[in-house]
Specification:
The complex is a heterodimer of chains A (788) and B (234). With 788 residues, chain A is an alpha+beta fold. In chain A, helix 1 runs antiparallel to helix 7 (270-321). Classes of the chains: A alpha+beta (788), B mainly beta (234). Chains A and B meet through helix 2 of A and strand 10 and strand 11 of B.
Chain lengths: 788, 234
């Protein structure tokens, strides 16, 4: 695991191991050097001690030999009888405990020789017996020693090797003989040396090129030939400087006599010597291991203590990441990590508050701070799951657009807010469950009561008071669509949709409150389908052109027809134009639709022309058509191609179409006029068009809206309006067309008042071309055509 | 080396005076021919380098039974300045020898030579009773108190003995005719028994020249090794 703690710990481990290794290595090499130095020192010391001891013995011998040689008593008996001489010699020998004493005459003859010889008794050396030497009465082997001044030598007598000192016995200047003393080089010397230096000591003698062991400090060597052999072997190796590694050793060679060589070998087991150092090593090693363990443990705890707050932070971060903001970190540390944890806590608080704000925004409308559609959906889900009946009211502020347009959007917003505030008062009552603001001026109220009258009354009550804003008094009026649970639907979404539909219906009916009925909904669904289906309608031949005749009131002859498009929907049957024209305009399909109508109408003209029916055809032009760049070109081409006289075509344009962009409309209409086509203002009287505009418009006729005509018989106001309009039109040189004639009274009234053309169910419903043709040919009343 | 030569030179000078005493005057010139009692014999001792050697003992040992007189005059060997003076002395057997201590300190004179062992202490200023050596021998003498003192006494069986003088000449007068061994002896002479022997028939006054072939060693220096004589403080 690559955690921070492990990294820190590993770093510490590495650091500590390296430091320890360096320290240990330094110590090790220092100790090793010390060991080597101590071994060297020890060996050198041993050698020095040996040399010192050896020389001391010789000096001692020499001094004594010189002293003894001066002894008068000895001189007196020197040439006398042997017994006296030997006794005297032995006396002197005893004084220094020498192992060898010799008297040599002036002629070089050994006149007396005493040797102390040791015998071994069970490994212990006896005190030694003094015997006459084997060389007595023989010539001294080294006459040159007598002549030379050197007193000290190594002397070998019958296997025994001696340190040897010669001193001349003189009478005045005359040398009458020599006196010699010797200390044997044997196990005693070796043992003594060993006791001083603690090194095994072997004496080796090289005779005729071969070494042999003459003495060893090891006690039982002289008894065992095997031991002798190994000791000799070892000593020989040491002399050749081939020291076996388990030993420390040194040697010296003394080569001063008679082609023979004395080798002194000192050695010890390295293990014995370094035992003490080894012990130190162990202590050092244990100490190092202990230090390492302690420091590693400390490192572990340090790493843990550094990372503990971080681990807590990580755990906390995970908790927060999972969405739980409630838990904070308890911080005791005041270091950076503590600060970090503190910052973390603060951040957490900030996140919580921000999330709250976001949540609030998500569930509330920013303008009124009321719950929004989200909250509505939730509440609805809750309510529907409780299966208690409740009411959904969809409210819409009336005339908000007017307020926005006239007083500005700020005021509009204030009005919306005021509405929100007022409605919110209702939610304090128990039956009002929730008020939501869906946006703009749309509100939804959920009420657990189903008493609609009471509810609407309460709503009306809160809205009753006028809203005063900056000196402006505004009346708040809301229209309401209502849906009931579970009566209308058990589905939350459907309920809202239903309330919306009901609200929509109020616009049509002009009522303030509208309960949902299933009938409203058909249109809605149909409408959605129509949008899709309309695209197919033209190529599929589902559209049909109906014609409604216009009667010339002067001649009582049908001289004009209005072309009206009908949609024979494959499943819905006949769809009225009010339902799909609007869709066509909004979805951009009006262009194709109008062109289809135009070309179809032109064809029909030609058909009637062949039958001898000379009818002017009026075609409705949408406001959208006026925005098309090539519309004028299309119309002109179509007329020319169909070879229809332009004056036989009337273009009907609604008053509102002209109102949108009067300049462009006037320019385009002027072009049509120039081309010879007739122009008519459709639905005149509903579109707020000013007389100034009317004056400029290049039209030929006004078509008074049917709403003025339908009740003409009973409504005097309508009569006044129609009469004035006819007069106005005639005064401006325009013809007048009245539509919506449903009774004879209206027809006659209009005829009497000079209206040029009349159109309505009283005369004829819109009919398909063939049917109309038949009607025109058969109808006795309007049979004037026959005359033409 | 220089020191050695110097010591020889000194010794020669000293001996020169004594040798004159012994035989001088009786045979002053070899050309005097025979005096009435015998012949004059002159022996010249020279080194290997043909240099005259002084202080060499020369004696004529009769080989043909000549009856010779005995010297009666006692020989004096002094102990003076902690030395044997003279270093080298020759006497005839049975001739008296007297040791005279001329120092202010006791000497212990001894000899361990076989057959002629003696040992006596002589107090300051005294002399011992006359000592007589009855046969020819070489006596090396020492002082048991002063180890460096060294003296030699040669006892011969002939009255014809002398030490060569400064020019290496030993004179003998009144030498009876007959066969002699002419012996040159010196303790430092590196010959067998420290001597060179020539056998000669003497019937006339004659001069013999003996050239040594062996080395004559340096004479011992009878001196204390110590740098100062602590006894002088007493």
């Amino acid at each position: 695991m690559k955690s921070l703690q492990n990294k820190i710990f590993l770093f510490f481990v590495l650091l500590l191991v390296v430091v320890q290794a360096i320290a240990f290595w330094t110590l090790y090499s220092a100790n090793k050097n010390q060991e080597i130095a101590e071994i060297n020192n020890r060996l050198t010391t041993a050698q020095t001690i040996f040399t010192e001891l050896f020389d001391r013995r010789l000096d001692f011998l020499t001094a004594f030999a010189e002293t003894a040689a001066q002894d008068y008593g000895l001189k007196q008996v020197f040439d006398d009888d042997k017994r006296s001489l030997l006794v005297a010699l032995n006396n002197h020998r005893k004084r220094i405990d020498a192992d060898l004493v010799m008297a040599i005459s002036a002629s070089g003859l050994i006149t007396g020789q005493l040797q102390r010889q040791f015998t071994l008794n069970a490994g212990v050396q006896s005190k030694g017996k003094v015997r006459q030497g084997v060389e007595r009465d023989q010539k001294f082997r080294f006459p040159q020693w007598l002549e030379s001044g050197q007193a000290t030598h190594l002397y070998l007598v019958d296997e025994a090797l001696y340190q040897f000192s010669l001193s001349p016995i003189t009478v005045g200047s005359k040398t009458i003989g020599w006196l010699a003393f010797g200390f044997q080089i044997d196990q005693r010397l070796a043992s003594e040396f060993k006791s001083i230096t603690d090194l095994n000591t072997n004496f080796m003698l090289k005779h005729e090129g071969a070494w042999r062991l003459i003495a060893s400090s090891k006690a039982n060597v002289s008894q065992s030939t095997d031991l002798q052999f190994t000791e000799k072997k070892l000593a020989q190796k040491i002399i050749q400087s081939q020291i076996p590694s388990q030993y420390i050793a040194t040697h010296s060679l003394i080569t001063e006599f008679d082609q023979q060589e004395l080798g002194v070998v000192m050695y010890g087991l390295r293990a014995n010597f370094v035992a003490l150092l080894q012990q130190q090593w162990w202590r050092l090693l244990v100490l190092a291991a202990l230090t390492l363990f302690v420091s590693l443990s400390s490192a572990y705890f340090i790493a843990a203590s550094i990372t503990r707050p971080i681990i807590r932070l990580v755990a906390q971060a995970k908790i927060v990441a999972s969405g739980n903001y409630q838990q904070t970190i308890a911080v005791t540390e005041k270091d950076e990590l503590g600060q970090l944890a503190q910052g973390f806590n603060e951040m957490q608080i900030a996140v919580i508050s921000r999330e709250k704000a976001i949540m609030h925004l998500a569930n509330h409308d920013p303008l009124t701070n009321l719950p929004n559609r989200h909250a509505l959906n939730k509440s609805l889900a809750d309510l529907t799951s409780q299966a208690q009946p409740f009411t959904v009211l969809h409210l819409n502020l009336s005339r908000l657009k007017d307020v926005n347009d006239t007083l500005g959007h700020n005021v509009g917003d204030e009005v919306i807010k005021e509405l929100g505030r007022r409605l919110q008062l209702l939610t304090k009552q128990t039956c009002f469950r929730l008020l939501t603001h869906l946006g703009a001026d749309e509100f939804v109220l959920l009420v657990s009561s189903t008493n609609l009258d009471e509810i609407t009354q309460q709503i009306q009550d809160v809205l009753e008071t006028n809203f005063n804003y900056q000196g402006i008094s505004l009346h708040l009026q809301a229209r309401m669509g209502v849906a009931l649970y579970p009566e209308n639907s058990k589905d939350a979404k459907t309920l809202i949709q239903m309330a919306d539909t009901a609200l929509h219906q109020t616009r049509k009916t002009g009522k303030l409150v509208q309960l949902y009925y299933a009938d409203y909904d058909v249109n809605t669904v149909e409408r959605l389908n129509l949008i899709n289906d309309l695209k197919q309608a033209i190529p599929a031949g589902e559209l049909a052109l109906y014609f409604q005749p216009k009667l010339c009131l002067r001649t009582m002859v049908v001289t004009h027809v209005e072309a009206l498009v009908r949609w024979q929907h494959p499943t819905l049957g006949m769809v009225p134009p009010d339902d799909f024209i609007h869709i066509a305009e909004q979805t951009g399909q009006i262009k194709a639709l109008t062109r289809w109508v135009f070309t179809t109408a032109l064809k029909q003209f030609k058909t009637w022309e062949k039958l001898g029916l000379n009818l002017n055809i009026a075609i409705n032009i949408s406001a959208e058509n006026l925005k098309e760049a090539d519309f004028h070109q299309f119309i002109c081409q179509a007329i020319m191609q169909a070879e229809v006289p332009a004056e036989k075509i009337t273009l009907e344009i609604t008053e509102s179409a002209v109102v949108e962009d009067p300049q462009a409309a006037i320019q385009l209409l002027s072009q049509f006029q120039e081309h010879g086509m007739k122009l008519s203002i459709d639905d005149y009287g509903t579109g707020y068009s000013s007389l100034a505009q009317l004056k400029q418009l290049p039209v030929h006729e006004l078509k008074i809206d049917k709403s003025f005509i339908q009740r003409l018989e009973h409504d005097e106001d309508d009569q006044i309006i129609v009469r004035s309009t006819i007069e106005l039109a005639h005064n401006m040189g325009l013809h007048v067309v009245a539509e919506g004639i449903e009774d004879e009274y209206s027809l006659n009234w209009l005829s009497k008042h000079g209206c040029e053309l009349a159109q309505g169910y009283f005369i004829s419903r819109p009919k398909p071309a063939k049917e109309l043709t038949t009607w025109l040919l058969d109808n006795p009343i309007f049979s004037l055509i026959k005359k033409n | 080396m220089v020191k050695a030569l110097l010591s020889i030179f000194c010794f020669v000078l000293v001996n020169f005076s004594f040798s004159k005493i012994s035989q001088a005057g009786e045979c002053s010139n070899i050309t005097d021919a025979a005096n009435k009692d015998g012949y004059c014999v002159e022996v010249i001792v020279r080194s290997r380098n043909k240099q005259a050697l002084a202080g060499m003992v020369v004696y004529l040992e009769p080989q043909s039974g000549q009856i010779l007189a005995t010297s009666t005059e006692p020989l004096v060997i002094n102990q003076q300045n902690k030395t044997f003076s003279p270093y080298l002395s020759v006497i005839q057997a049975n001739q008296e020898t007297r040791f005279v201590n001329k120092d202010d300190i006791t000497h212990h004179i001894y000899s361990v030579s076989r057959g002629n062992k003696f040992s006596f202490k002589i107090r300051a200023g005294q002399s011992n009773a006359n000592t007589v050596f009855d046969h020819s021998s070489e006596i090396a003498m020492g002082c048991n108190i002063h180890d460096w003192m060294s003296g030699h006494l040669l006892v011969v069986d002939t009255p014809y003995f002398a030490k060569s003088n400064g020019v290496g000449v030993a004179n003998f007068s009144n030498v009876k005719s007959g066969k002699y061994q002419i012996v040159v002896w010196h303790p430092q002479l590196q010959e067998k028994n420290n001597r060179v022997v020539i056998e000669k028939e003497i019937n006339n006054s004659e001069v013999f020249s003996i050239d040594l072939t062996a080395v004559l060693e340096e004479l011992p220096v009878q001196e204390n090794d110590e740098d100062f004589d602590f006894l002088s403080d007493y």
